[in-house]
């Protein structure tokens, strides 16, 4: 696991190659095997590969996210606010579990923050994505995970990034 964490980098440049059905299925399985508060499983996912929709998704942030239109696959992570007060934590954990599964499948990924962000269309990122994809009000939009085969070399993390001053023993 530590080796994979060292190798994982956010990926914003992808090969022009679709993600296979089998790998897509594994990404969605991994996300739904993530732990949730009181096991409420409040997440839902929207899988997007349509080029026109990906193009429009690029405007979900201000400034825009230029890599989204070039991404072969984007998965929108939603949390049901009526089910639990831990939907933010639950949807965040599902997002990172999906990113780690992507890494283990040889794919690259990047988290695009939607919650509390602004689009370049005069409305919040959440409102923009909600309108574009027809998402009901009770489903909050946390993030979009862009996934694809990485293009180019990403420098790996190093263990010397680990900051021992952040670790306290017994008391702060
Ligand atoms: C909560 C969260 C929000 C993020 N939002 C964005 C985003 O909106 N756009 C983007 O390009 N990257 C986003 N990222 C990726 C971070 O920029 C990236 O993880 C960070 O710079 C560390 O780089 P690394 O992932 O290569 O280790 C986000 C990551 C997290 C965890």
Automatic annotation (TrEMBL):
<feature type="domain" description="Nitroreductase">
    <location>
        <begin position="62"/>
        <end position="149"/>
    </location>
</feature>
<dbReference type="InterPro" id="IPR029479">
    <property type="entry name" value="Nitroreductase"/>
</dbReference>
<dbReference type="Pfam" id="PF00881">
    <property type="entry name" value="Nitroreductase"/>
</dbReference>
<comment type="similarity">
    <text>Belongs to the nitroreductase family.</text>
</comment>
<keyword id="KW-0560">Oxidoreductase</keyword>
<dbReference type="GO" id="GO:0016491">
    <property type="term" value="F:oxidoreductase activity"/>
</dbReference>
<feature type="domain" description="Nitroreductase">
    <location>
        <begin position="6"/>
        <end position="58"/>
    </location>
</feature>
<protein>
    <submittedName>
        <fullName>Nitroreductase</fullName>
    </submittedName>
</protein>
<dbReference type="InterPro" id="IPR000415">
    <property type="entry name" value="Nitroreductase-like"/>
</dbReference>
């Amino acid at each position: 696991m530590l080796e994979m964490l060292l190798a994982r980098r956010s990926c914003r440049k992808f090969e022009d190659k679709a993600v296979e059905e089998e790998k897509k299925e594994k990404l969605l399985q991994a996300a739904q095997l993530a732990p949730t508060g009181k096991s409420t499983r409040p997440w839902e996912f929207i899988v997007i590969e349509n080029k026109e929709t990906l193009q429009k998704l690029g405007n979900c942030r201000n400034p825009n996210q230029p890599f989204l239109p070039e991404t072969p696959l984007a998965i929108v992570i939603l949390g049901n606010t009526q089910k639990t007060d831990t939907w933010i934590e639950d949807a965040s954990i599902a997002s990172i579990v999906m990113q780690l599964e992507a890494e283990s499948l040889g794919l690259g990924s990047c988290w695009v923050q939607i919650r509390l962000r602004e689009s370049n269309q005069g409305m919040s990122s959440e409102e923009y994505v909600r309108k574009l994809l027809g998402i009901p009000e009770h489903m909050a939009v946390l993030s979009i995970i862009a996934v694809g085969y990485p293009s180019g070399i990403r420098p790996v993390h190093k263990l010397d990034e680990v900051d021992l001053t952040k670790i306290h023993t017994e008391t702060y």
